[in-house]
Amino acid sequence: MQQGVAIVPTSLYAVSDGYAEFLKSNEERTKSREESLQAELKQVKFRRLVQQLENVILARNISLIASPEVVERFRKVVSAEEGLLGN
After folding, report:
1. For the segment 34-80, what is each residue's pLDDT rounded down to a tens digit?
2. Do 63 and 71 form a contact (C-beta atoms < 8 A)?
3. Cys bridge to 70: 26, 46, 66, 79, which one at CB 3.0-4.6 A?
4. Residues contacting 40, CB < 8 A, separation 6+
């Protein structure tokens, strides 16, 4: 054996290649999960926006289509909700 030259069995290379592949795969899965979570968050925010826009439109149009009694009940409910959230 020559001095300063290390002899490494070829099976160790296979282990290190396998570990490198594992690390790469693990990193790809982590990135994929993060992208999936971000996409889901974006979708949830979009749904909330649509819901709020629908609420605004319905609140604005209730007086055009509902009876005065229904409009008054609606205003009381909104007032009660604002009171609960304001405390």
Report:
1. 999 999 999 999 999 999 999 999 999 999 999 999 999 999 998 89
2. yes
3. 66
4. none
